[in-house]
Specification:
The chain has helices spanning about 5-15, 90-95, 95-120, 125-140, 155-165, 200-210, 250-265, 275-280, 310-325, 460-490, 510-515, 520-525, and strands at about 20-25, 65, 85, 170-175, 175-180, 185-190, 190, 195, 215-220, 225, 235-245, 270, 275, 290-295, 300-305, 325-330, 355-360, 365-370, 375-385, 390-400, 410, 425-435, 440-450, 455, 545-550. It is an alpha+beta fold and about 550 residues long. The strands form 9 sheets. It has a 5-stranded antiparallel beta sheet with strand order 12-18-19-11-25. A 4-stranded antiparallel beta sheet has the order 2-16-17-13. Strands 3-1-9 form a 3-stranded mixed beta sheet, covered by helices on one side. Helix 1 packs across helix 3 (about 95-120), helix 3 (about 95-120) packs antiparallel against helix 4 and helix 5 (about 155-165) crosses helix 6. The radius of gyration is 38 Å and the shape is extended.
Length: about 550
């Protein structure tokens, strides 16, 4: 203790032991165990950062649909891996308390020594000096402490309860386990027993090691197998949800769609597992083969790497809906799409927004996705979720037209004028087709789409532009007339008189209104720009949608 402060004392405590207390997963079927992705249950903050180089622009202004589902890992704060869990250093966590304990004890002993010295006032100076030296030596000797740890049983019990949740393995009854890309078929596994950790028994083993000051050891968890059924589920699997949409003739956009569908194809989700489009497909970059295609950003048609991928996420959303699974996060586009009915879309960008759904069925599901002949199809492969004879359909109806936004004033170098478009609001419905042949129409969600702001020149800019165009047209017309007369004078041909003189035809009259494109004319031409998922015809129609039920 002599010469030691709180920090050096804390360091001395930490150097007096080695902590490497590990709990090992004793699951005999560990090779078949898949750890849950705990990161997706962390606090979700939608990414809205600006796109990185070669990345995608964000589409963050659409309506949000979010469903909170029961989180089986809500109480889990530890982050073990599949095979082991390293117990956090609990002595280091209690270091400040231990230092307080030592200093309190030391001060108490010094006080006791001081009292003892004052009671020896009658001793000689030499004896007093000797006694003082002995007291100091004694006080120094008693500074070697055997630390008493606080009760850690509650903390260890909590850790083991969490470990039992994370390491729980449900029995596999012959569900799909993977995808064979060569055959294009999902692979079925055999029956595999599950496993359940005995949290209380495991906590007792860990506490026994701590009480024996054995902080550097590996302890196998206690647990038991959970029997699985011997019957295969293969005969019960089938397509439980499917949807197809038409794409445009844009070759680059179609390539982007094909790449995203291929990345999605073959995905397998276990029961309770949540799907993320961005995590599954990954960032759309030129290095992966994605190209620039038309997309919307801040109300403008821009060329975006990965443009068109939203058609894949929207097609997936419709297939998921028809399968009876639960969408947990979806955002509609800022502007109404054309490849699906507005209100039934799901936009994605990197790093966000994302599209997410959860496999809340009792069996693993698979996703099939492909592009062919300007169509993209997504199917959900699994064991029926909806009751036999029942199917769901997603439709939407426009409920209101919203005003055209205020005009945006531009200059000629910023583009040409264009007419704006109105926004709209849509009500989406779940159509339930029942086994008895009846149907039920239930409101599902609403969607809001912005209109496009008209682009207009400032009044003086527009007048100058028109005047300049008129002057150029008149000059061009005059030059053409003069050139024609010159040519007639020097060339012989039809219309040449016997004297060799040419009879020039009168120059055609040119009106500025015939040769100058007005802002209205330019706006009409501008509107045929092919927007994402939109052919030259700007109006979305039901003919662009092919719907398939389960």
């Amino acid at each position: 203790m002599n010469g030691m402060n709180r920090e050096t004392l804390k360091q001395a405590i930490q150097q007096s032991y080695t902590w490497k207390l590990v709990v090992k997963n004793a699951n005999p079927s560990i090779d078949s165990f898949k750890m849950p992705d705990l990161s997706i249950y962390d606090v979700k903050e939608e990414a809205t950062a600006a796109a990185s180089e070669d990345g995608e622009e964000n589409d963050n202004d659409g309506s949000v649909q979010q469903v909170e589902v029961d989180n089986p890992y809500a109480s889990v704060t530890i982050r073990p891996d599949a095979e082991s869990f390293t117990v956090p250093d609990l002595i280091a966590a209690e270091a400040d308390t231990l230092v307080d304990q030592i200093f309190t004890d030391y001060a108490s002993k010094l006080s006791a020594a001081s009292v003892g010295a004052s009671e020896s006032e009658e001793t000689t100076a030499a004896e007093e000096k000797e006694t003082t030296e002995e007291s100091t030596s004694t006080a120094g000797a008693t500074a070697a402490y055997t630390l008493t740890l606080p009760d850690l049983s509650s903390t260890i019990s909590d850790y083991m309860q969490q470990l039992a949740i994370v390491w729980k393995m449900s029995p596999k009854n012959g569900d799909i386990t993977g995808y064979d890309s060569e055959s294009g078929e999902f692979v079925f596994g055999g029956s595999v027993a599950g496993y359940a950790v005995n949290a209380d028994a495991t906590a007792q083993k860990v506490m026994a090691a701590i009480e024996q000051h054995n902080y550097d050891t590996t302890i196998e968890c206690e647990g038991e197998k959970v029997s699985a059924s011997d019957s295969s589920m293969k005969s019960k699997y089938g397509t439980i949800g499917s949807f197809t949409t038409k794409t445009t003739g844009n070759a680059v956009r179609n390539k982007n769609i094909k790449l995203a569908a291929a990345a999605l194809n073959g995905t397998v989700l276990q029961p309770g597992e949540e799907f993320s489009f961005n995590k599954t497909v990954g960032q759309r970059t030129e290095a992966k083969g994605y190209g620039g295609a038309p997309a919307y950003n801040s109300g403008e048609v821009v060329t975006e790497v990965g443009g068109g991928v939203c058609q894949v996420s929207s097609t997936l959303y419709n297939a998921v809906f028809r399968s009876g699974l639960t969408t947990t996060y979806r955002r509609s586009h800022t502007f109404a799409p054309s490849y699906v009915t507005p209100g039934t879309d799901a936009t994605v960008s990197w790093p966000g927004p994302d599209y997410q759904f959860i496999n809340d069925s009792k069996h693993a599901i698979g996703i099939r996705a492909w592009y062919e002949d300007q169509t993209v199809t997504v199917q959900i492969y699994g064991v029926r979720v909806l009751p036999e004879g029942v199917s769901w359909e997603l439709t939407a109806e426009k409920t209101a037209d919203l005003p055209v936004p205020a005009p945006k004033i531009i200059t000629p170098d910023q583009g040409t004028p264009s007419a704006g478009t109105a926004g709209s609001e849509w009500q989406a419905y779940k159509i339930i087709h029942k086994a008895d042949g009846t149907t039920e129409k239930v409101k599902d969600h609403t969607a809001h789409y912005s209109g496009h702001a008209p682009k207009q020149y400032a009044e003086n800019v527009a007048e100058t532009s028109v005047a300049e165009s008129s002057t150029e047209a008149t000059t061009t017309s005059s030059e053409s007339t003069s050139s024609a007369a010159e040519t007639s004078t020097h060339e012989s041909g039809p219309g040449t008189g016997t004297s060799g003189e040419t009879k020039a035809s009168p120059a055609p009259e040119t009106s500025p209104s015939e040769s100058v494109k007005t802002p209205e004319t330019k706006a009409t031409e501008h509107e045929v720009i092919e927007a994402p998922g939109q052919a030259v015809s700007p109006a979305p129609g039901e003919d662009d949608i092919i719907q398939e039920g389960p």
